[in-house]
Design a protein that fits this description.
Elements (H helix, E strand, L loop, with lengths): L7 E4 L5 H12 L3 E6 L2 H7 L5 E5 L5 H11 L4 E4 L14 H29 L2 E6 L13 H21 L4 E8 L5 H9 L3 H10 L9 H13 L7 E4 L6
Parallel strand pairs: 1-2, 1-4, 2-3, 4-5, 5-6, 6-7
Bound molecules: nicotinamide-adenine-dinucleotide.
């Protein structure tokens, strides 16, 4: 595991799921972690872990992002984990869903990156990790039109930033998970009516025959935080879905 001692890591959407597992993994690797989310109740629990400080930050809110990052100061690693899954095809899409998804899944990353990049450039060092998905430009997934579109934009955003700053000490990579056990996945399975059938269908699309765990994705985030010879890449971690 990477040694992140002395590094400051900010994670968005850190109160549950992959973000929470990543905050815990970054702390275990020795970093000082700022776990941010809008769910203050869950954050308070996470804040009891040594090495983890918590902040309420709504990544949809420009002013909140700017003031939180100004308060945090130096950031060595930014993990943009916030995102929302809309279900449905293009014909079922509401314009409001598209606007919301672009705001949360894409624009929020632009907000946080703008807040940390000048400091990273000043120090000539920084790792930015963006949460995409296998459902993106990597793979067309049925009933994920808005989601796949916005997560494809995350990969484009990642590569653009990587290209602009590769010679200036900044690495920017994306993580593309398959289906991962998380509270929002539980919600999606319950929302389908027949929970057992929904769960079986999610598992069936993973060739390894099981869902991923948030901890498995967190391990990749920790690796990317410390990895010094990779940038602009979209890392599939998907139980074999993309083979
Ligand atoms: P989750 O969806 O269960 O939790 C999301 C967290 O985001 C919650 O704690 C919520 O409070 C927080 N959040 C929501 N709106 C916010 C806002 N405006 N500002 C700050 N925080 C906000 O977690 P998950 O399923 O692990 O998903 C995390 C990320 O991983 C998302 O970007 C998702 O698209 C991506 N992803 C998940 C899966 C999966 O199968 N779970 C697969 C691929 C990619």
């Amino acid at each position: 595991m990477a040694d992140l001692a002395g590094k400051v890591v900010v994670v968005t959407a850190a109160a549950q799921g992959i973000g929470k597992a990543s905050a815990l993994a970054f702390a275990k690797a020795g970093a000082t972690v700022y776990a941010t989310d809008i769910n203050e109740v869950l954050l308070a629990e996470l804040g009891k872990t040594p090495g983890i400080k918590t902040r309420k930050v709504d990544v949809l809110n420009d002013a909140a992002v700017t003031s939180a990052f100004a308060e945090i100061g130096t950031v060595d690693v930014l993990f943009n984990c916030a995102g929302f899954v809309h279900s449905g095809s293009i014909l079922e899409m509401k314009d409001a869903d598209l606007d919301f998804a672009f705001n949360l899944n894409v624009h929020a990353m632009i907000r946080t990156i703008r807040a940390v990049l000048p400091g990273m450039l000043e120090r000539g060092d920084g790792s930015i990790i963006n949460m995409a998905s296998l459902a993106s430009s990597t793979k067309g997934v049925p009933n994920r039109f808005v989601y796949g579109l916005t997560k494809a934009a995350v990969i484009g955003l990642t590569k653009s930033i990587a290209a602009d700053y590769v010679g200036k000490g900044i690495r920017c990579n994306a993580i593309c998970p398959g289906t991962v056990e998380s509270p929002s996945l539980q919600d999606r399975m319950h929302a389908q009516g027949d929970y057992d059938a929904a769960r079986a269908a999610f598992i069936a699309r993973q060739p390894m025959g099981r869902l991923g765990t948030p901890e498995e994705i967190a391990d990749l985030a920790v690796y990317l935080a410390g990895a010094t010879y990779t940038s602009g890449q979209a890392y599939n971690i998907d139980g074999g879905w993309s083979i």
